[in-house]
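Troubleshooting: if your tokenizer reports a length mismatch, compare your output against this known-good record of 278 residues.
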Amino acid sequence: MQQLHNHRLYQRTIITIICIAVLVGSSVAILTAVPPITAQAQAPTPTPKPGFPLPLLGNIVRGSSVALGDLNGDGIADIVVGSTDGRVHAYTGTGQPIWSVQPSTTPIESKAAIGDLDGNGTNEVVVTAGSTFAPTLPGALFIFEHTGALRCKFTPFSFNNNDIPSGIYSSPALVDLDGDGQLQIVFGGYDAHVHFLNNDCTPRLSFFVRDTVWSSPAIADLDGDGSPEIIIGIDTHLEPAFGTTNGGRILVYRADGTIMPGFPVQIDEVIYSSPGDW
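Known-good structure output:
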């Protein structure tokens, strides 16, 4: 397929999110912009935790799920979310701002990944930039230190050969591919590739999959050999002609990039959802 299909743009974005709320007695962060219930039997109104909801300076959160992780070393989960102006926002669990940065003007519609990439005792934040509403905007992957300082940036390929890096809607997954205690990054892109990156944004492996990737990868040891596999959905037939608009595949990569026996699995519909993990 030479271009992204306009009919997909509504698939993954349903509601506009403008604030974050955390319920009392719960550690679950909830994105809210839901209109009031008008039925006669209304559900009880949840009580926000003090400090919430959080206004994001008028910015819209669309598609970017909240990620939780300790950024300031106090042992308590902090909150990270992206917005449509290309900003990444970090807040404490009590709603106090930690940092807000704008690495790009391309919307961030994916969920950030938080983890100690290099084993130095502090967590890093990994985000991707790419929009379902404006898929021709340039995409990128960014890694931030726990302070919000930019560590590095990865620029994907251009799917349409127009010198504009294709967007990334797939949320990144973190995985130790070689057992050295450091984490690598795996994701798919509109550039029709599945990418494995090192934690300094340098490419490790990239696989051309013939069409766009909307799905986010899941990580699991599927065969019990002690090494992780990467499971991801692909928007393509096994051997389609370009321009084919239906069909999808489930791919399972081993840590070395080889395909696990029994895969890919072909289905008749495009895969937008992400594989479940545990």
